[in-house]
Amino acid sequence: MSEVYLATSDAGASVVVKLLGERQARDPAMREHLRAEAELGRAPMHPNIVRVLDFHGDDADPFVVLEHVDGVDLWRLQRALHQTQRRMEAPLACHVVRELLAGIQFVHTLPSEHGSGLVHRDVSPSNVFLSREGEVKLGDFGIAVSPRQSMPPPGASGAPAAPGLSGRSGHPTPATGSVSVRVNRGKVGYMAPEHLLGMSSDHRTDLFSAGVVLAEVLMGRPLFATLQATELGALLQLRERTVEGLTEVLGDHPGSLVSVVLRALARSAAERFQSADEFRAALAPHASSPTEARPLLSALVNWARGAVRPSSSGLEAVDPRASAPPKVTLEPAGDKTRPVPDAFFEVLDSAGAVRGRYTWARLVELALADQLGHNDPLRAPDGRVITAADLPELVPVLPQRTAPTSEVAGGVADWADSLSTSSFLHALARLVFADESGMLVAEAAPARKEVYLARGRPTHLGSNLAGDGLGRFLVEQGHLNSGELDMALAMAPRSGGDLARAIVDLGLMEQSAIDRVAERFARERMLDLFRWHRGTLRFFRGVEAPSTAMPVNLDAFEILRSGALLLEDPQRHFESLLDRRVGIATTVRGLHRLGLGPVGHDLLAHADGMHTVTRLAARVTHERRVPQTEVLRELYFLLEVGALELRV
User: Fold this and answer.
1) For the chain, first and last CA: distance in Å?
2) CA distance 61 to 34
3) Are 639 and 621 in contact (CB under 8 A)?
4) Second CATH level (architecture) for the domain 2-68
5) Which of 253, 243, 191, 248 minimizes the C-alpha distance to 218?
6) CA-closest candidate to residue 282, choices 292, 272, 297, 291
7) Omega before 446 within 30 of 0, i.e. cis
8) CA 574 → CA 96, 597, 609, 620, distances in Å?
9) Beta-carbon contacts of residue 165 (< 8 Å; ≥ 6 apart)
């Protein structure tokens, strides 16, 4: 929806500026979402709500100014705990959720133009902000609505015939046959069943979401981690199976606390807690007092920020973004600790000079782009000089090189050619028609791209260009913002080096959506190679794709045809070839797979070795009554794929 900046007010205080992007600023609905969020600024302040300080809605670039909660969100804290195989203690977890519920209760009783109360609709760990002082605040009200606004229109499909959410079978009645996250808004993993189904919903949907948050902080992992399906039945069945299994998963917690979790996650809204205050009261016996909890939460927040945590030998500096937390022991100094710098990794050259300074996410991106090898030296945040392979979480995304692949640097190839004398179209067609398997490398310093084939079919792509990856393409196309990409890159090593899987695991995109984008991305990156006019081509037979290469699902003959269409000026291409005679190539085979049209068949029929390019093009142009440019483009295609040849 927006870009978010840390800023300094005229009074010198840190604030957050939420600014609509250029495209969103032109969308009246997006402007209204921002205005609705700003309306909270008129409400009395509440300690568990992120305050709205200012709003400029009539500007060309509308923005809202928010309180800066100096700390981390609950998602980041949970991630940091998970990375170190820890989880929040139950009393502290219950305290955090009770504070969250206090903010939710306040929101649910706010007056609005449609009556009393608002439904947040996006209660999730990334919207629960934890301050360095141990405060808990609910934020991001961009999609909040009144309960009346969330009701489907009268007579709409799925509107309940009677109070409650159950159809004849006792299950929620769907409004449609599939769920649309863009319509229903929110994060699928935290949506209540009625919200998923697009049915009438009220404040109890927020209580379901808070129940998911509670279950996750108690377990130390996502509740619906495998929730990727788009079929409503599958979504709801998965929820049922997962919730039913919670009793066993939470077996080390008191039965009364498990009962609270199960009630919060009841499929029917009528069986859940009916207010946030009721939910808070049920958690009270299991929660630490605020006096005890706030210092503990403060320590965890500072640790997750990369500050300090207690250790047996003093205070140990930790940054969870780093795969191996730097072991820097600091002397205790009362309530004060030494400042710890941000976690940057410096990539060094062989002489020890700094090539670049990168965050963890950028370091992962370098590895995915094949610009960082196992033995490349790094200076870690604690000053140690190590190799990239010394970071266990980085290893899955480092280039995996087999013995034949490593020969690329030495130039040993089964055949090689220059792009000044042989086009990429010609080289790829040669491999496709021969049903070759191996790696085709195109290099034009500093760029290198690799196409992996299996029996003539392109199966994977590789590139050493940092901006040539799927992540950057998703940002360019507006599917992710740069912050979300950084988050996914940081998680990619834990997803087996698969960036797409990390994006899905984080709930940033659905699997089906990312598959469609990835297919378009792969096709465009493949077509880029047909535009290369300089550099070298080398083929290494039998080399298999490494795990870091991007899988592609391309029709070899369709991509050859599309590549030929990229010839910008057919007339100019044939200027020096007009008097050359055109004949059938002696080794031609498999022409039936090219899907030729009438123009192509006529060119093959009249290419008798006597017609020159000029005469052949003129004859087919006249007989088919098509533009000569179209005929020349088809002639170019047939020559490059080896169906025709030019003779002296």
Assistant:
1) 63
2) 11
3) no
4) 2-Layer Sandwich (3.30)
5) 253
6) 272
7) yes
8) 73, 21, 17, 16
9) 172, 173, 193, 194, 199, 200, 268, 269, 270
User: In the structure, what pLDDT confidence band is assigned to residue 588 with cuts at 50, 70 and 90?
Assistant: low
Domain ranges in the chain are: 2-68, 72-290, 293-330, 345-397, 403-555, 567-647
CB within 8 A of 26, min separation 6: which ones?
Answer: none
AA identity, residue 368: L
Summarize the confidence of residues 323-329 as an average pLDDT: 30
Q: Which two tokens stand for residue 72?
A: 């981390």
d(C-alpha 269, C-alpha 281), whole Å: 18
Two structure tokens written together for 193: 């069943």
Q: Which residue has the higher pLDDT, 267 or 180?
A: 267
Q: How is residue 119 annotated by DSSP?
A: B
- Residue with structure tokens 């130390």? 220
Q: How far is CA 632 from the centre of its chain?
A: 43
pLDDT tens, position by position, 284-299: 999 999 988 888 898 8
585 neighbors 645 (Cβ within 8 angstroms): yes
Three-state DSSP class for 621? helix
Lookup: tokens for 191: 């949506």
The label of the residue with tokens 């049903």 reads 435
Q: Which of 642, 643, 567, 641 shows the shortest CA–CA distance to 601?
A: 643
- Mean pLDDT, residues 332-339: 31
> What sign results for the dihedral spanned by CA atoms 239, 240, 246, 249?
negative
Residue 638 near residue 562 (C-beta atoms within 8 A): no
How far, rounded to the nearest angstrom, does the alpha carbon of residue 554 sit from its chain's CA centroid? 22
pLDDT-derived band at 410, boundaries 50, 70, 90: low
Instruction: Give this prediction's pTM.
Output: 0.47
Strands 536-541 and 438-444: antiparallel
3-state secondary structure 124-159: CHHHEEEECCCCEEECCCCCCECCCCCCCCCCCCCC
Q: At what angle do helices 628-640 and 556-564 cross, to 10 degrees?
A: 130
Strand, coil or helix: 372: coil
Residue 89's φ and ψ, nearest 5 degrees, are -65, 145
Q: Cite the beta strand spans of 57-131 per DSSP E.
A: 63-67, 71-73, 111-112, 115-116, 128-131
Q: In whole angstroms, what separates CA 113 from the centre of its chain?
A: 37
Joined together, the tokens standing for residue 33 give 């979402």
Is residue 400 a contact partner of residue 452, using CB atoms and an 8 Å limit?
no
* 509 or 403, higher pLDDT: 509
pLDDT at res. 268:
83
Contacts of 154 (CB under 8 A, 6+ apart): none
Mean pLDDT calculated for residue range 198-218: 86
Fold category of 72-290 in CATH? Transferase(Phosphotransferase); domain 1 (1.10.510)
Q: Average of pLDDT values for 396-418?
A: 67
**Residue among 339, 343, 298 nearest 320 (CA):** 343
Backbone angles phi, psi at 467, to 5 degrees: -90, 10
Tell the residue number behind the tokens 């040669």, with chain if given. Answer: 430
- Sequence-separated (6 or more) residues with CB below 8 Å from residue 1: 20, 24, 30, 33, 34, 142
